[in-house]
Design goal:
- The chain has about 100 residues and is of the alpha/beta class.
- The protein has one domain: TIM Barrel (Alpha-Beta Barrel), CATH 3.20.20.70.
- It is about 45% helix and about 15% strand.
- The protein contains 5 helices and 4 strands; from the N terminus they run H-E-H-E-H-E-H-E-H.
- The chain has a 4-stranded parallel sheet with strand order 1-2-3-4.
- Strand 3, helix 4 and strand 4 form a beta-alpha-beta unit.
């Protein structure tokens, strides 16, 4: 399994990004990841991809407190951060707001 190979080759914590399915989260925990990042990698433009925020509480419910759970999708305001934290994330990652700020002239 590729994940096992990555984990065996490093002493660093391995955090898996892009999980949108509770079963995948459970499988990641079985393979000893230290964290999971719920993210659709900007996939909200694809038909049939569930909302990351919608999946966050389901994934939290599936893994409990076994590993750290983070969120990375659609954070644009402070209230978005609080929503993700309230739904089970330990922390959030932001990208676009920072890029928008850097691009402002």
């Amino acid at each position: 399994h590729d994940l096992d190979n990555v984990i065996s080759e490093t002493k660093l914590p391995v955090v898996l990004k892009g999980v949108l399915n509770p079963d995948d989260a459970i499988e990641a925990v079985k393979h000893s990841v230290q964290g999971i990042i719920v993210s659709n990698h900007g996939g909200r433009v694809l038909d049939g991809v569930p909302s990351s925020l919608e999946m966050l509480p389901e994934i939290k419910s599936a893994i409990g407190n076994d590993v750290d759970l983070y969120f990375d999708s659609g954070i644009r305001t402070g209230s978005d951060v609080f929503k993700a934290l309230a739904l089970g994330a330990k922390g959030v990652f932001i990208g676009r707001p920072v890029l928008y700020g850097l691009s402002y002239q």
